[in-house]
Known about the structure:
Helix content: 40-55%
Distance between the termini: 6 Å
Number of strands: 6
Strand order of the largest sheet: 3-2-1-4-5-6
CATH architecture of the largest domain: 3-Layer(aba) Sandwich
Number of domains: 2
Oligomer: single chain
CATH superfamily of the largest domain: HAD superfamily/HAD-like
Strand content: 5-15%
CATH class of the largest domain: Alpha Beta
Radius of gyration: 16 Å
CATH topology of the largest domain: Rossmann fold
Amino acid sequence: xxxxxxxxxxxxxxxxxxxxxxxxxxxxxxxxxxxxxxxxxxxxxxxxxxxxxxxxxxxxxxxxxxxxxxxxxxxxxxxxxxxxxxxxxxxxxxxxxxxxxxxxxxxxxxxxxxxxxxxxxxxxxxxxxxxxxxxxxxxxxxxxxxxxxxxxxxxxxxxxxxxxxxxxxxxxxxxxxxxxxxxxxxxxxxxxxxxxxxxxxxxxxxxxxxx
Length: 211
C-alpha cells in the first residue's frame, strides 16, 4: 500500500448524495421517500441493469414509475438530470486534493450526460470518467472493471484503490479482483468487508498522504 497507481470512485451515493437528491426530486410528485422505499427503488434499478442494456436515464425513470407510481414524463425528466443532484459537502475539496496524489477515475452506472453534470458541479474533470453508457454494461459486471484496467493500463493489484459507499455490489467484486477497497460511511451506505473505512472523502485524502 506504499504506492497508489489509481483511485477509482463509485459516484452515486459516494460522491453525489443519491438519497437526498432523489428524495428532493420526488418530494412533490410521489410518496415521501424514506430509507426503506429508497432501497426498493435502487434494488429495482439493479434488477433492470442486469437485463438487456438500457440507459441509466431510462433505468431511473422506470424505477420511479414502477416503484413510486410517478408520472412517466416527470420520471424521465428526473432521470435525465440525476447528475445535478447535490454532491456531498466534502466531495469537491477531497477529490481535488486526491487528484494530486494519484489519477482519479469514476466507475459509474450512469450516462455520459450525468458525468458532465457531476463534473460541472465539481468544477474540474477527473483523470478518467467511465460510465455504463460507454462500456455498455453495469456494475457489478466484471467486464466493466476489465475495460477500466485496459483503458488506464492499470493491472489489478493493491495499488489500485476503489472507493465506494456500497460494499455489496461494488466493493465485493473489487476485493475479488485484488484491489484495495475503501468503504465510505454515507447517509445511505451498505457496509461490508473493506480494507479501509473512512467517514468521508476528506479522511481518505489524509490517509492517502500517509501511505
